[in-house]
Amino acid sequence: MYRIALHAALAVMLTLAVGGCGSKNKEEYEKPALYWYQKMMKSAAAGNLEKADDYFTSLESEHIGSPLIPQAMIILMQAHMDNEEYLLANFYLDEYMKRYGSFKNRQFAEFIQIKAAFYGLKSPQRDQKLVSDTLKKARGYIAKYTKGEYTPMVETIEVRLEMTQYLMNESIASLYERRNKPKAAQIYRARNERSWLKKEDIVPPAKGWLGWLFD
């Protein structure tokens, strides 16, 4: 009799547990697009970007054709940029451009990519390739969108990167000279000689690269 009662109690507990899980799962799935969007917005506003990313995944998975998706991508891109998570910001931008890359949208998206890369420069001396690649993108952007809405801002970024590259070349050349390697030093001096910038026009950073780049 005791065993029957014990089995009955366990069966009831198992039923409640399964029922509870079922209710929880039902609560987390098959929601309207606006539900996921609002959850994503609330999490992003609270600074919980990991949760915001999860809610976006639910929005995208359950409502792949929702008009809220492109707007959600831009919001998450900006949120990750503000949080200095530039790789994630670029991920959302890449996806945005692949899906919604009209001419006008591409202007904005490409501008944000350049801006994200620019602000991702923590130490230009260690990120020489990123400096070079971002500078090429900035030049390409200016050539493609000559009178674009965001072109003046990209031009500012380009000038800052040109100056950064000039100072890096100068620094590397000086290092080679101190190590008695004049030929190597001349390679970097020659690069600066081809630049439209002049050494006397550039004031080296006094408070570190980041402050100098972004002020």
Short description:
The chain is mainly alpha-helical and 215 residues long. The chain is 76% helix and 0% strand. It has helices at residues 2-28, 33-45, 49-62, 68-82, 86-100, 103-119, 128-144, 151-178, 182-193, 209-214.
User: Poorly predicted ranges (pLDDT <50, ≥5 residues)?
Assistant: 1-26
Provide the number of structural domains: 2
Strand content: under 5%
Order of helices and strands: HHHHHHHHHH
Evaluate the radius of gyration. Answer: 27 Å
Outline type:
elongated
Instruction: Tell me, rounded to a whole number, the average pLDDT.
Output: 78
Q: Largest beta sheet, briefly? A: none
Total beta strand runs = 0
Oligomer: single chain
Structural class: mainly alpha
Tally of contiguous helical segments: 10
Terminal Cα span? 81 Å
- Helix content estimate: over 70%
Textual characterization of the structure:
The chain is an all-alpha fold. The chain contains 10 helices and no strands. The protein has helices at 2-28, 33-45, 49-62, 68-82, 86-100, 103-119, 128-144, 151-178, 182-193, 209-214. α6 runs antiparallel to α7 and α8 packs antiparallel against α9 (182-193). The chain is elongated, with a radius of gyration of 27 Å.
